[in-house]
C-alpha cells in the first residue's frame, strides 16, 4: 500500500489562490496613507507649492527690488506652479488653486492702493473667503475636505467606502469652514488692536495654532468614525522594483 507523502515543513503556511484573493480584496478595502517618509514628503511638497515657493519668491525679489517687486514675484511663482502642474500632471491641486485666488486678490489690492493697512486687511478677508468656499462645497457631492485629504496627505479611500464616509467629509468641511471663520474674526480683531509692525508675526502664530488644532481635530474625528464603521486604516505597502 502506498504511503502518504510526508508533509513539507512550509505546508502549514501555504494559502490557496482563493484565500490569497480574499486577503488581497480585504486589504484593498482599507483606507491607505503613504508610509511616514512618503507622507512627510507629500505634505511638504504641497506646502512648498502653495506657500513656501511664493514666500521665497517674495523674499528674494523684495530684497533686490522692493516690496512691489516681491509681490509680483510671489504672484508669478504661484501662477507658474499652477501652469507647470497643469502641463505635466493634467490637473492643479486644490490647495494651489486656493493660493492663486488669495494671492491674486491680495497682490492686486496691495499694489493698486500702496497702503499697508489695505494689504494687511486681506488676511482676515482671505480667511473669510475660504470659509465661504468650504461652506459652499460642504453640502455637495464633492466636499473640498475629501479632495484635500487625497491631494495633501495622499489618503486613498476605496470606492466601496466613499458613500459611507461622504457624510464625514461633509461635516469635516464644515469644521474647516468654522476654523477659517474663527481665523477671519481673530485676525480682524488683532488688526484693530495690535500695532501694524507686530501684526505679521502675530498673524503667523495665530494661523499656525488654529490650523494645527483643525488638523488634530480632523485626524481624531476620522479615527473615531473609522472605528465606528469598522473600517481599517493602514500605511500603503512599499513599492519595490
Give the key terms:
about 240 residues, mainly alpha, 2 domains, two-stranded parallel sheet, 8 helices, 2 strands, globular
What does this entry look like structurally?
This protein has 241 residues and is an all-alpha fold. It folds into two domains: 32-114, no CATH class; 115-232, no CATH class. It contains eight helices and two strands; from the N terminus they run H-E-H-H-H-H-H-H-H-E. The chain has helices at residues 17-28, 36-65, 67-89, 94-113, 116-138, 144-152, 162-193, 196-229; strands spanning 31-33, 233-235. Strands 1-2 form a two-stranded parallel sheet. Helix 2 (36-65) packs parallel to helix 4.
Q: What is the strand and helix layout of this fold?
A:
Elements: H1 17-28, E1 31-33, H2 36-65, H3 67-89, H4 94-113, H5 116-138, H6 144-152, H7 162-193, H8 196-229, E2 233-235
Parallel strand pairs: 1-2
Helix pairs in contact: 2-3, 2-4, 3-4, 4-5, 5-7, 7-8
The major beta sheet can be summarized as: 2 strands, parallel
* Strand adjacency order, main sheet: 1-2
Mean pLDDT: 78
Shape: globular
> How far is the first residue's CA from the last residue's CA?
49 Å
Low-pLDDT regions = 1-28
Give the structural class: mainly alpha
Rg on CA atoms, Å: 24 Å
Percent of residues in helices: over 70%
The helix/strand series, from N terminus to C terminus, equals: HEHHHHHHHE
Number of domains: 2
- Beta-strand content: under 5%
Helical region count? 8
Give the beta-strand count.
2
Amino acid at each position: 500500500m502506498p504511503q502518504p507523502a510526508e508533509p513539507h515543513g512550509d505546508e502549514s503556511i501555504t494559502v490557496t489562490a482563493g484565500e490569497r484573493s480574499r486577503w488581497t480584496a480585504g486589504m484593498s478595502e482599507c483606507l491607505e496613507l503613504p508610509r511616514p517618509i512618503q507622507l512627510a514628503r507629500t505634505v511638504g511638497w504641497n506646502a512648498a507649492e502653495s506657500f513656501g515657493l511664493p514666500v521665497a519668491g517674495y523674499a528674494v525679489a523684495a530684497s533686490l527690488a522692493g516690496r512691489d517687486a516681491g509681490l509680483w514675484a510671489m504672484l508669478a511663482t504661484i501662477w507658474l506652479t499652477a501652469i507647470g502642474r497643469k502641463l505635466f500632471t493634467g490637473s492643479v491641486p486644490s490647495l494651489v488653486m486656493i493660493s492663486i485666488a488669495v494671492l491674486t486678490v491680495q497682490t492686486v489690492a496691495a499694489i493698486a492702493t500702496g497702503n499697508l493697512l489695505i494689504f494687511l486687511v486681506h488676511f482676515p478677508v482671505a480667511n473669510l473667503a475660504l470659509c465661504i468656499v468650504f461652506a459652499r462645497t460642504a453640502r455637495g457631492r464633492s466636499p473640498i475636505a475629501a479632495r484635500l485629504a487625497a491631494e495633501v496627505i495622499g489618503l486613498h479611500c476605496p470606492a466601496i467606502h466613499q458613500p459611507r464616509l461622504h457624510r464625514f467629509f461633509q461635516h469635516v468641511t464644515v469644521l474647516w469652514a468654522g476654523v477659517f471663520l474663527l481665523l477671519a474674526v481673530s485676525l480682524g480683531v488683532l488688526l484693530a488692536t495690535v500695532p501694524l509692525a507686530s501684526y505679521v508675526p502675530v498673524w503667523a502664530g495665530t494661523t499656525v495654532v488654529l490650523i494645527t488644532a483643525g488638523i488634530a481635530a480632523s485626524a481624531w474625528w476620522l479615527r473615531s468614525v473609522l472605528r465606528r464603521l469598522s473600517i481599517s486604516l493602514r500605511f500603503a505597502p512599499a513599492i519595490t522594483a
